[in-house]
């Protein structure tokens, strides 16, 4: 609810990494690991901003932030086929009106 993200290992109650105020205090409404690239995850905040984290590039800050214009995005999920080498990765965005958008992610964050 405060924009913090914690990375846990299943065998410990303490986080391996913690990023406080990663969304400038906005609640995170969805977070998902990339299906095609294990070191990348995406977070959606309550203000319809998508944050892309690539832990191989930087473990301090997101490598990109994309505001989704116009209508509020209420949730997101990722789609892709990890068993295929093409590295296609899409983000499915659900808007407040019920409209669904699918956007493809740049290859540098999707390729295995």
TrEMBL record:
GO terms for biological process: intraciliary transport. GO terms for cellular component: cilium; cytoplasmic dynein complex. GO terms for molecular function: dynein heavy chain binding; dynein light chain binding. PANTHER family: CYTOPLASMIC DYNEIN 2 INTERMEDIATE CHAIN 1, WD REPEAT DOMAIN 60. This is WDR60 protein. It comes from Mohoua ochrocephala.
């Amino acid at each position: 609810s405060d924009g913090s993200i914690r990375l846990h290992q299943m065998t410990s109650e303490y986080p391996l990494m913690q990023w406080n105020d990663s969304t400038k205090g906005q609640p995170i409404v969805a977070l998902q690991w990339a299906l095609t690239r294990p070191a990348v995850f995406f977070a959606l905040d309550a203000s319809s901003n998508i944050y892309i984290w690539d832990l191989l590039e930087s473990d301090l800050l997101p490598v990109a932030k994309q505001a989704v214009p116009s209508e509020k995005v209420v949730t997101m999920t990722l789609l892709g086929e990890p068993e295929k080498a093409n590295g296609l990765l899409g983000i499915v965005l659900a808007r407040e009106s019920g409209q669904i958008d699918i956007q493809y992610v740049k290859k540098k964050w999707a390729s295995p």
